Amino acid sequence: MTKLQLKYRELKIISVIAASENISHAATVLGIAQANVSKYLADFESKVGLKVFDRTTRQLMLTPFGTALLPYINDMLDRNEQLNNFIADYKHEKRGRVTIYAPTGIITYLSKHVIDKIKDIGDITLSLKTCNLERNAFYEGVEFPDDCDVLISYAPPKDESLVASFIIQYAVTAYASQRYLEKHPISRPDELEHHSCILIDSMMIDDANIWRFNVAGSKEVRDYRVKGNYVCDNTQSALELARNHLGIVVCARQKCAERPARRHAGALLSAPV
After folding, report:
1. For 66-114, how does the pLDDT look when each residue is reduced to its tens digit (9 = 90+)?
2. Beta bridge partners of 268
3. Strands (DSSP E) along 219-261, which ranges?
4. Domains in the chain, please, with CATH?
């Protein structure tokens, strides 16, 4: 059987056409003439002796052969990219894709305060992806996504051998808006059970969160079971609910300071717990 001499560009063109279902769009993405895209596709189909796309509809649709072929093409393209990245890394070139996963708050912090400090990014593509913690993540660990290079998380991964370093340790406390505290005063943490607490999904146990506070004037730590009408999968959303006077939220002091401290603008005050 004669081996087919498949060209990288042909495979790339087929992959892009399959994603866009349109030769014109594919040509724009690839930065080549539409006529050349059509020619590469025709040459490939002639070479293999089978149609990859059905041209009887407005949009190009994969034939059964094309549907079966596409995963192999994409896998080959991915392996080629990995090979190029490996060679570039070995030569210490600044190129390739680095994918960072983190919860909304951390991604926001990186975007505001870290990414612009990179002096020379070279040809690196930095991909920031939001990965909010799933329910029970604090107790069971976090899944490491397949395409992830760096995972920054409040909770450890399920496979703790993947931990590269602990970045920072910080304390959290309870916050609420002035309007909420005036309407619903609180003086001790054991009063939290009578309040509307804004819950974090990854900390859920049944229908509640467990909040941990130091006993005033000592190093003793106690756990408090809290409930509420609102559950968020990220701290940013929980803070906005608290700023709108909907309850008490637990978070780090730095998170509350990110918004101008004008009380009429929804500033959060430390709840006396």
Report:
1. 899 999 999 999 888 888 877 777 666 667 788 999 888 888 888 888 8
2. 177
3. 221-226, 230-232, 249-252
4. 8-90 (1.10.10.10), 95-162 (no CATH), 172-270 (3.40.190.290)
